[in-house]
Design a protein that fits this description.
The chain contains 32 helices and two strands. By secondary structure, it is mainly α. Strands 1-2 form a two-stranded parallel ribbon. Helix 2 packs antiparallel against helix 3, helix 17 packs antiparallel against helix 18 and helix 24 packs parallel to helix 26. The longest helix has 42 residues.
Length: 644
C-alpha cells in the first residue's frame, strides 16, 4: 500500500541519515587522528617549512590539519607547535597561509585563554611582516569576538589589519554581528524562563555593539549582515530601528552606493519588523512593494507566511483568507503547513471556527500535509465556535494516522465547553479523556482542568469533584488552578461549605494551595454580599494553610464585608493583619484597600470610623487616597441632608 511504501521510504531515509551521521563522525575522528600523528612527528623534530620534502611533515600541513580538527585539544597542539617554531627563530619563515592556519586552530582554545593566544599570534604575525588577507581577518574575528562585549576590541584589531593590507568584507563583519545575535537570543531565552523580568545583561549594550558594526561597515554590507543586524534589533525590542535600517538600504529610492541586494531571509525579517511596528496590512503592503520592485527573483512561501502570522496575532481573517486564496490559485507562492496553520489560528483568534474548518478542508484538498500542531490549532478554533465539529476533526486525524499528543486531548475537551449543558456532552468529554489514556497519551494538568471546566459548564460540580479525586489518585498532576475551578464554582452558587470541603480535599491529595484560590472564592462571596462566607475563606487561608494575606485578598475581603455590613470584622482584620504587617513584610494596603475599608464603615453607618480609617490609610499608603476621600465626602453630605 502507499502507506507501507511511505513507511519503508521513511525508514530508509532515517537509516541513511544515521549512516551519514556515523560516517561524518568517523571522518572527524580520522581527521583528528591524522592531525595528532603529524603533530607527533613534528614534536620529534622532523619539522620543515613550506611543502613536505619527504623528510618530515611541514609546519603548514600540521597547522592545517590541526585547524581542521576544530577542538580544544588540537588548539593546544597548534599553540605548542607555534611556540616551538617561534622559539627556534622560524617565525619569519612562516607564510600568511600558515599564520592563518594557526589563528584558526587556536581560535578553538578554551575560553579563558583563547583571546589572549589569538592576540599573541596576531602580534607575532605583525612582527614577522606577514601581510594579512581576508582569511586572516575572518580568523581574527572568529577568535576574538564571541559576544557583544568583544565587538569593540575586535574592531580595533581589524582596523589594524586593514592598515597592514588586510581586506575587510561582509563575511568578517557578519562574524561580529552573529556574536550579537547569539547574545540577543540568550537574553531573550533567559528572560523567557524567568517570566520577563530584568536581569544583569545590558540589552542596550548589545544593540549599541551591533549598530557600531553596521555603521562602520556601510560600504561592505550584504543580505547576511542586514539580516543579522535586524535579528539583533528585533530580539532586543528595537523592531522600529530594524525597519528603519531595512528601509534605508533596500528600496529603489535609496542611495545606490548603500543599497543592499537582499535575500528571502532579509525580506522575511523586514516584514516581521513591519508587522510588529505597524500591523498586518502594512506588512502586506511592504510585501507587495517588494514584489513590484523585483527585490527578489522569486518570492517564497516563508515571506507570505510572515504576513499570515501577523494576521494571526491580530485576528485579521479578511486579509489572511485573501492571501491564502491567492496562494491556492497560484498568484502567490504555494502554501505549506505553516501557511494553513496560520490561517486556522487567525480564524480561531477571531472566534471563526467555521471558517477555520472550511480553510482546513480546502488546504487538505490542495495536498497540504497535516501535523499535530495544525490539528491542535484547529481544535482550539473549534473550541471558540459552536459551529465547528471538534470531535469529527479528532476522529478524522486518528483515522488518517496524524500524530496527536496530550495537548490534542486538551484542545478537544475545550471544544465541549460551550455545549456542555446539552444532554450527553459531559459524558462524551469524559470518554474523550479516557480515549486519551487508551492511546497512551499521558493526561496533563491542562487536560484535567479542561475537563473540570466542562463539569462546571454542565452544572455538575459533584461529578467534577469525583473526576478531580479520581485524577489525583491516578497520578494526574492537579494544580491550585484545578482546585480553584471547582471551589469558585461552588462559592458562586453559595455553597461555601462544599467549596471548603473541596479545598481541604485538594490539600489532602497533595495539591499545593495558594492565595489565588481564596481570592476567587472571596470574590464570589462578594458578588453574593456574603460577608460571612468571605471571612470563612479568609480565615481558612490564614489559619489552616498559613497562606500570608496579600493585598488583593484583603481588598476583596473588605469589599465583601462592606456589602454585608460587617464593619467590625473589617476593623479587626485591619488591626490584626494589616497594621501588624507594617514595616515587617510586603505592604498589604494600597489606595484601593483604603477605599474599600472606608466603604465598609460607610455602609455600616459609621461615618466617624470611616474618617479615622481614611487618615490611617493615608499614613499606611503614603498616598492621598482620593477615591476614599470622595466616598467619605459624599457620605457626610448624605448624612447632613438626612439631619436637615
Amino acid at each position: 500500500s502507499a502507506r507501507a511504501r511511505a513507511a519503508v521510504d521513511d525508514g530508509e531515509a532515517s537509516s541513511s541519515t544515521t549512516r551519514d551521521a556515523a560516517a561524518s563522525g568517523a571522518r572527524d575522528d580520522a581527521r583528528r587522528a591524522r592531525a595528532r600523528d603529524l603533530f607527533t612527528k613534528v614534536s620529534k623534530g622532523a619539522t620543515t617549512h613550506g611543502d613536505d620534502d619527504g623528510g618530515g611533515a611541514s609546519v603548514g600541513k600540521v597547522l592545517y590539519k590541526l585547524q581542521r580538527a576544530r577542538d580544544a585539544e588540537a588548539a593546544e597542539d597548534a599553540w605548542a607547535l607555534l611556540n616551538r617554531v617561534c622559539a627556534d627563530g622560524g617565525a619569519l619563515a612562516l607564510t600568511t597561509k600558515e599564520w592563518n592556519f594557526a589563528l584558526s586552530a587556536v581560535g578553538y582554545s578554551k575560553a579563558d585563554v583563547r583571546a589572549g593566544r589569538v592576540v599573541e599570534i596576531w602580534e607575532r604575525m605583525c612582527d614577522a611582516k606577514a601581510r594579512p588577507n581576508r582569511v586572516t581577518m575572518s580568523a581574527l574575528a572568529r577568535g576574538l569576538c564571541r559576544g557583544h562585549a568583544d565587538v569593540r576590541t575586535t574592531l580595533a584589531r581589524l582596523r589594524q589589519g586593514v592598515m597592514l593590507g588586510g581586506d575587510m568584507d561582509a563575511y568578517v563583519l557578519n562574524i561580529l554581528l552573529l556574536a550579537c545575535v547569539r547574545d540577543a537570543k540568550a537574553l531573550r531565552d533567559k528572560r523567557g524562563r524567568r517570566g520577563g523580568e530584568k536581569d544583569g545583561i545590558d540589552e542596550r549594550a548589545i544593540v549599541d555593539a551591533a549598530l557600531e558594526v553596521w555603521t562602520i561597515g556601510q560600504s561592505y554590507h550584504n543580505a547576511y549582515t542586514l539580516t543579522s543586524v535586524m535579528q539583533v534589533l528585533r530580539g532586543c525590542g528595537q523592531a522600529g530601528k530594524a525597519l528603519e535600517i531595512f528601509d534605508s538600504v533596500v528600496w529603489e529610492e535609496c542611495d545606490a552606493a548603500k543599497r543592499v541586494a537582499i535575500d528571502a531571509s532579509a525580506l522575511a525579517i523586514g516584514l516581521s519588523c513591519c508587522a510588529i511596528v505597524n500591523d498586518a496590512k502594512s506588512a502586506n503592503k511592504m510585501y507587495n512593494r517588494a514584489k513590484n520592485e523585483n527585490l527578489l527573483e522569486e518570492l517564497s512561501t516563508p515571506d507570505v507566511n510572515v504576513v499570515l502570522t501577523a494576521c494571526s496575532r491580530e485576528g485579521n481573517v479578511s486579509l489572511a483568507t485573501q492571501l491564502f486564496d491567492a496562494m491556492l490559485e497560484g498568484r502567490e507562492p504555494r502554501p505549506d503547513k505553516a501557511s494553513l496553520t496560520a490561517v486556522i489560528l487567525t480564524c480561531g483568534r477571531a472566534g471563526k471556527g467555521d471558517i477555520a474548518m472550511e480553510y482546513f478542508k480546502r488546504g487538505r484538498a490542495a495536498g497540504i500535509d497535516c501535523d499535530t500542531i495544525m490539528i491542535n490549532t484547529l481544535l482550539d478554533a473549534c473550541a471558540k465556535s459552536t459551529h465547528a465539529d471538534g470531535l469529527g476533526v479528532f476522529m478524522d486525524a486518528i483515522e488518517k494516522q496524524v500524530p496527536i499528543d496530550a495537548s490534542t486531548i486538551t484542545f478537544l475537551l475545550a471544544s465541549f465547553t460551550e455545549s456542555a449543558a446539552q444532554p450527553g456532552q459531559l459524558q462524551s468529554a469524559i470518554e474523550v479523556m479516557n480515549m486519551g489514556e487508551f492511546l497512551n497519551l499521558e493526561p496533563s494538568t491542562a487536560t484535567l482542568n479542561a475537563l473540570l471546566r466542562i463539569c462546571v459548564a454542565a452544572d455538575d460540580l459533584d461529578r467534577g469533584r469525583v473526576e478531580f479525586i479520581k485524577a489525583c489518585e491516578r497520578g494526574i498532576p492537579a494544580s491550585s488552578t484545578s482546585v480553584a475551578i471547582l471551589a469558585q464554582a461552588y462559592a458562586v452558587r453559595g455553597a461555601v461549605k462544599e467549596a471548603m470541603e473541596l479545598i481541604r480535599t485538594g490539600a489532602a491529595l497533595g495539591v499545593e494551595l495558594n492565595a489565588g484560590i481564596f481570592i476567587q472564592c472571596v470574590s464570589a462571596c462578594k458578588a453574593l454580599a456574603d460577608g460571612q462566607g468571605a471571612l470563612m475563606f479568609y480565615k481558612a487561608a490564614r489559619d489552616e494553610y498559613s497562606i500570608p494575606p496579600v493585598t488583593r485578598l484583603i481588598n476583596e475581603l473588605f469589599d465583601a464585608l462592606a456589602r454585608g455590613g460587617m464593619w467590625q470584622d473589617a476593623l479587626r482584620v485591619l488591626s490584626d493583619d494589616v497594621l501588624d504587617n507594617v514595616g515587617v513584610g510586603e505592604r498589604l494596603a494600597d489606595e484601593d484597600t483604603v477605599a474599600r475599608l472606608v466603604r465598609a464603615f460607610i455602609v455600616g453607618g459609621e461615618v466617624d470610623q470611616a474618617a479615622a480609617a481614611l487618615e490611617l490609610g493615608k499614613f499606611l499608603t503614603n498616598a492621598p487616597c482620593d477615591r476614599a476621600s470622595i466616598a467619605l465626602r459624599n457620605a457626610k453630605r448624605v448624612a447632613m441632608t438626612k439631619l436637615a
